[in-house]
């Protein structure tokens, strides 16, 4: 006999978002070992600036050697640490978060709870703010993993705030009120609004006007406002990033106990494997309870020690943030430009590690069935794992999230060659039904041969 949790299907991992990952893992692309494999464009990782961190580590060997002032601190770090975290690390995190926000807001370590990544931080907040059956409103499209992270173990429900492509997915008063009314009709007790800023999957930062609207809405309804700001350091274009805490400060709500922020180093520093996240809250009860819960997912002392040193280096963090933004912008521009040449448009983005790509013109019909069919073809035949809008709860078929920062320049070139070949084949075969697949298979083999030939004659730059 197993628990109902084990036997239920509420984990949220049976969507095309996760199924695409499974297909990729069966046949992963490799520039030399498997050039016909699936290119992973469904994973929001930032690998563009690893060389900067690696250079810093080479210049500071004592940090990896667990030494301080040439003295070993191995025993100190190996022993049990309480769940409040190392003071030096929390201080460094507070300063780094302030730096990303132009020091317009100050973070206090006594309001900070360390967690093993933002997944744990978001779930912990749900446990603290809501009971099973309560609901949070989230602007849609939203990150597919929230259906797992926020709902599965907590029993909390998600009600989408439907935003539209016609107004570039801006959050409006009508959209907020409609979502709230839908939740009430379902007899759900709305406990708050949660946003990602910048948005995952849109790659756009939330404007000051939207944040002001959200704070007015949540304060009027007397519900919580949660801002997941794990992509805050990736904003590379105007408008600049604005934290909900900055707007709250301007409204004299800076100490409001119903405003909470989630942060992580997974995106800004590209360190998801380090499992570093946090909850920031003005509510002492939330901080106290979340701190106790954090014992189920702590950050290792060794990780805290390493990052405390890295983040305390002001010269490094200044250089890193500036250079990383430049690289992200250049990579975004390259993706958008290449897609444009194939007749594909994107929502204008200014942050994040992905673009929201418009493939509506490639659908056979304006339905989610047609979107699923196109997605299956792109994954299984074109060999690109991208995330369909339906997995992000987009209510308009034909939009896809495409990640661009988790691969080398050469791999991106392969992906774009495949896109161009696929679109070209579709256009050429619009009126040739049965020949369509044959021509695309021929085109794909040609692209693979071209890439293998290029590898044999040109020394490829290694992955960053």
From TrEMBL:
Entry superkingdom: Eukaryota
Cofactor(s) demanded: pyridoxal 5'-phosphate
Stated role: 1-aminocyclopropane-1-carboxylate synthase (ACS) enzymes catalyze the conversion of S-adenosyl-L-methionine (SAM) into 1-aminocyclopropane-1-carboxylate (ACC), a direct precursor of ethylene.
The EC number(s) this enzyme carries: 4.4.1.14
Keywords for this protein: Ethylene biosynthesis, Fruit ripening, Lyase, Pyridoxal phosphate, S-adenosyl-L-methionine
UniProt similarity note: Belongs to the class-I pyridoxal-phosphate-dependent aminotransferase family.
Protein species of origin: Eutrema salsugineum
Single GO BP term: fruit ripening
Catalytic class of the enzyme: lyase
Catalytically driven reaction(s): S-adenosyl-L-methionine = 1-aminocyclopropane-1-carboxylate + S-methyl-5'-thioadenosine + H(+)
Pfam families tied to this protein: Aminotran_1_2 (PF00155)
A molecular function GO annotation: transaminase activity
Pathway: Alkene biosynthesis; ethylene biosynthesis via S-adenosyl-L-methionine; ethylene from S-adenosyl-L-methionine: step 1/2
InterPro entries registered for this protein in UniProt: Aminotransferase_I/II_large, Ethylene_sulfur-biosynth, NHTrfase_class1_PyrdxlP-BS, PyrdxlP-dep_Trfase, PyrdxlP-dep_Trfase_major, PyrdxlP-dep_Trfase_small
The protein's name: 1-aminocyclopropane-1-carboxylate synthase
Domain Aminotransferase class I/classII large: 40-419
């Amino acid at each position: 006999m197993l628990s109902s949790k084990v036997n239920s299907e509420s984990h949220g991992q049976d969507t095309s978002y996760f199924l695409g990952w499974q297909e990729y893992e069966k046949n992963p692309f490799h520039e030399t070992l498997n050039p016909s494999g699936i290119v992973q464009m469904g994973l929001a990782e930032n690998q563009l600036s690893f060389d900067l961190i690696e250079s810093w580590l080479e210049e500071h060997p004592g940090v990896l050697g667990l030494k301080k002032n040439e003295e070993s601190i191995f025993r100190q770090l190996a022993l049990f640490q309480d769940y409040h975290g190392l003071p030096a690390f929390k201080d460094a995190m507070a300063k780094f978060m302030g730096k990303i926000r132009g020091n317009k807001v100050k973070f206090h370590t006594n309001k900070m709870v360390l967690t093993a990544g933002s997944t744990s931080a978001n779930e912990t907040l749900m446990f603290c703010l809501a009971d099973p059956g309560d609901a949070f409103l989230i602007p849609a499209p939203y990150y597919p993993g929230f259906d797992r992270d926020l709902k599965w173990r907590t029993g909390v429900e998600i009600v989408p705030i439907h935003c539209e492509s016609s107004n570039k997915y801006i959050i409006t008063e009508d959209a907020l009120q409609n979502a709230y009314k839908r939740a009430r009709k379902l007899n759900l007790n709305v406990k708050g609004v949660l946003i990602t800023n910048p948005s995952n999957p849109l790659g756009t930062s939330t404007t000051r006007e939207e944040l002001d609207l959200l704070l007015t809405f949540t304060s009027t309804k007397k519900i919580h406002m949660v801002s997941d700001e794990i992509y805050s350091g990736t904003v590379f274009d105007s408008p600049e990033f604005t934290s909900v805490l900055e707007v709250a400060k301007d409204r004299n709500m800076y100490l409001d106990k119903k405003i909470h922020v989630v942060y992580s180093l997974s995106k800004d520093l590209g360190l998801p494997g380090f499992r570093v996240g946090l909850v920031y809250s003005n509510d002492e009860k939330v901080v106290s309870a979340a701190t106790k819960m954090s014992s189920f997912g702590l950050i290792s002392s060794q990780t805290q020690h390493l990052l405390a040193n890295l983040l305390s280096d002001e010269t490094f963090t200044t250089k890193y943030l500036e250079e990383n933004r430049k690289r992200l912008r250049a990579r975004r521009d390259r993706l958008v430009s290449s897609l444009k040449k194939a007749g594909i448009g994107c929502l204008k983005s200014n942050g994040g590690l992905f673009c929201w790509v418009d493939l509506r013109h490639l659908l056979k019909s304006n339905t989610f069935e047609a979107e699923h069919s196109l997605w299956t073809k792109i994954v299984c035949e074109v060999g690109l794992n991208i995330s369909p809008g339906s997995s992000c709860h987009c209510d308009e078929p034909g939009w896809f999230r495409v990640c661009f920062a988790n691969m080398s320049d050469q791999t991106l070139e392969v992906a774009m060659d495949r896109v161009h070949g696929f679109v070209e084949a579709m256009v050429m075969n619009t009126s040739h039904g049965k020949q369509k697949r044959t021509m695309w298979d021929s085109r794909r083999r040609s692209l693979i041969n071209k890439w293998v030939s290029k590898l044999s004659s040109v020394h490829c730059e290694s992955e960053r």
